[in-house]
Amino acid sequence: MVRKTSVIVAGLLVLGGVAGLVKGMAEGTPKWVEGLYWTYKGKTEFLLQPPVVHAVSELKSQLTFLLMKSQCLGGLELWSVGIVVDLEGRKTLEITTIAGFPATLLPAPLMRWPLPVDFIPGVHFPSVLARSAAILGIMVPGAKVRIEGSYVFDPQAELPFAPPGWALPFVAREVLNLVVEAPAPVSTSAGRYDTAFPVTYTLAKPTGMHEGKAWFAPEVGWWVRGEGQVQGDIYLVRYSLDLLEYGVLESDKWKQKIGAAIENMRQHDPVNAEKRMKSLETLGISLQ
């Protein structure tokens, strides 16, 4: 639960000065439509430190982000997104909402915080600020964003392995910084993108520091690569994200994909599988 949030945006943008850049990006960016998806391969490495830094385990995963349904609210286009995470055949489904800009401004939402990295298995660093920052502003080289917030830190919720009663909730601070760099080439498994925007990000919380760099490619309409780490007192989690493919699926095809993930999930997490089905029903999404 967020008690207080203050937002400080450095390098405020003058619309007239960036109109040419925004227009150029918009012309090359695919319009978001139902069935549009992006599939990534993810890698997570767990290490213990100090005094000796050594790898404990490694996870390899595949993540697919799929646009299921949109609605307009307050001038923004809101998309319900299904996230299928495949961890060596063990699938889970997450559902989130992404807000974009009106179609009159841009044909697709452009976001600053790289949302896909939050869903890589093993990267457990929940943040209301990070999720909010995923829908802030337009990507322009040199733009800097700093967000500070107060929230109730619940050790039991944010530290999955904390013993019961280990610590009581308390008001904590978190600080998020984002820097958008000039366009630069980046190579992925899906191809090379010559005008990708590198975004450096940091998020400081009581549990540690999340930092990394991600690349947003206008011609893909979303993130194509990411790499970073989550640093705690005695642990270090390193991760990477690489775009494998993207495209548009017909309605029956993407519904089959979502349905298959739920069926797989029922085998190892039936309670949450049913919750996902109810969430789809609430959104008015039928898999039939």
Task: Report on this structure.
This protein has 288 residues and is of the alpha+beta class. It has one domain (2-8, 29-282). Helix content is 19%, strand content 48%. It is built from five helices and twelve strands. Strands 1, 2, 3, 4, 5, 6, 7, 8, 9, 10, 11 and 12 form a twelve-stranded antiparallel β-sheet that branches. Strand 10 (208-217) and strand 11 (222-231) form a beta hairpin. Helix 4 (251-268) runs antiparallel to helix 5 (270-282). The longest helix is centred in the last third of the chain and has 18 residues, at 251-268. The radius of gyration is 19 Å and the shape is globular. The two termini are 36 Å apart. The model is unreliable at 1-24 and 102-109 (pLDDT under 50).
Strand content: over 45%
Q: Overall pLDDT, averaged?
A: 80
Overall tally of domains:
1
- Total beta strands: 12
Structural class: alpha+beta
List the total number of helices: 5
How much helicity do the residues have?
10-25%
CA-based gyration radius = 19 Å
Largest sheet: 12 strands, antiparallel
Uncertain segments are 1-24, 102-109
Large-scale geometry: globular
Distance between the termini: 36 Å
Order of helices and strands: EHEEEEHEHEEEEEEHH
Features:
alpha+beta; twelve-stranded antiparallel sheet; 288 residues
SSE topology sketch:
Blueprint: E1 2-10, H1 15-28, E2 36-48, E3 54-73, E4 76-87, E5 90-99, H2 128-133, E6 144-153, H3 155-158, E7 170-180, E8 184-188, E9 191-205, E10 208-217, E11 222-231, E12 235-248, H4 251-268, H5 270-282
